[in-house]
Amino acid sequence: MIHKERLGFFIALLLILAVLQGCATNRATATVDQTTDLSSLKVFYVKKYSEDTRDTNVLIKDRLVEMGFHVSETETDVDAIVTYVDKWFWDFTFYLLELTITLREPKTDFPLATGNSFHTSLTRKSPEGMVAEVLTNIFLNN
Prior knowledge:
Largest sheet: 6 strands, mixed
Helix content: 25-40%
Shape: elongated
Number of helices: 3
CATH class: Alpha Beta
Order of helices and strands: HEEHEEEEH
CATH architecture: 2-Layer Sandwich
Number of strands: 6
Strand content: 25-35%
Structural class: alpha/beta
């Protein structure tokens, strides 16, 4: 028969493992519409998310330029509009929990490609790292 002390220890251990498992989640995905040729997209406009208080739009612009694309300051004469949603979370410090970036057709707003990065506390990345991960996955998925 298992002693009550050992049973309590095993239950506590299982609870700790369950909590830690929830803290170590990461996911990075990208989908591209099958009719979209991303290689034809050269000029982008990054539309700032209305709830963005950390200038994630600037990180996206900078990464696109690093990747060799042109980023316009206006929505006119662009190949795609980039929209995004950034979700920040507090865990001793604020960190970027999830980032979704969507490339949209300028005239119809149709989503041409979407990428997502989700990293919880134990697998967190810098905001620049998450932007790079999402955009790399979008353009490598083509």
